[in-house]
Amino acid sequence: MTQTTHTIPELPFSIIADELERLRVNTPLVHVMTNEVVQCFTANTLLAIGASPAMVVAREEVAEFATIADALLINVGTVYAERLVAMQIAIDAANAAGTPWVLDPVAVGVLSYRTEAARAMLAQRPAAIRGNGSEILALANALNLCDVTGAGKGVDSTMSSTSALTAAQQLAAATGAIVAVTGATDYITDGAQTWAVPWGHAIMTRVVGTGCALSAVVAAFLADAPNRLNAVAAACAVMAIAGERAMECSDGPGTFVAPFLDALHVIHPTQLRSYSV
Ligand SMILES: Nc1ncnc2c1ncn2[C@@H]1O[C@H](COP(=O)(O)OP(=O)(O)OP(=O)(O)O)[C@@H](O)[C@H]1O
Ligand SMILES: Cc1ncsc1CCO
Ligand SMILES: [Mg+2]
Predict the structure, then answer these.
(1) For residue 28, which of 1, 70, 207, 259 is within the disulfide window of CB 3.0 to 4.6 Å?
(2) Residue 14 belongs to domain spanning
(3) pLDDT tens-digit profile of 60-74?
(4) Could you tell me which residues are annotated as the binding site for substrate?
(5) In this structure, which residue's CA is closest to atom 4 in ligand 2?
(6) Is 217 touching ligand 1 by the criterion CB < 6 Å?
(7) From CA 205, how far away is CA 186, in angstroms rounded?
(8) CB of residue 209 inside a 6 A radius of ligand 1
(9) What is the ipTM of this complex?
């Protein structure tokens, strides 16, 4: 039965701690194919949390690297024809090698070229999809799962995560992917079970690429994950908690990034376990 927002449990700190501990032991190598805006911030985010990023994009190299890597991110933020060809080669190689891959459907629903590209990718078994409310609604709409359009404002969402929750659950059930819809509260679902991640700070929408970097972190947590729902939820939680902590010593967007990376670096499983009741 579909859960409603009233009955959705908050992700326990014990799960966040266990998943973070697993990531710190694994130190996964993440193959990142993302947009031109967020490359450096995404790489720094992965390094701060304890993963290894590599931005390999040439069509001649992506199949080899998707096979070597522990996880792959496909982000369509600045997609164009040549990049899309390389992405499809990378996805095929990842699937052949058993490398989990994540789709970030940036601005899907706003532009028909990327909407069709992302819709086609859904048939290629992404392990997870991470998007804002508008993007998740648009993807569900592209699969005829809902009548509501995403109404995204470019790459920004006009829809709350809560308004996209049912679409997220339907999208997960239809694709087999874990779906994370982010916003004031993040919801992470496999279609049957859903976790709520209530932490974070609205300033994260005023700094470019926090969602894109989160999708890379989702890929990192998915590497060799025994429980994909918990892995994706923990990725969302660690980013949101770090965002909240960063705001304690930040005056706004310009001073947010440095304490955010520091918070990702120092967040520790033992400390998270101490929050468990
Ligand atoms: N109103 C809010 N309050 C608290 N945290 C938020 C809020 N909105 C977004 N976040 C957090 O910001 C991060 C990015 O989520 P968001 O939904 O803004 O992604 P996005 O729109 O894809 O971002 P981008 O495209 O700029 O990378 C997540 O960790 C999310 O929990
Ligand atoms: C601003 C922007 N434009 C294309 S991708 C991107 C990064 C945020 O999604
Ligand atoms: Mg985004």
Answers:
(1) 70
(2) 5-274
(3) 999 999 999 999 999
(4) 55, 209
(5) 77
(6) no
(7) 13
(8) yes
(9) 0.99
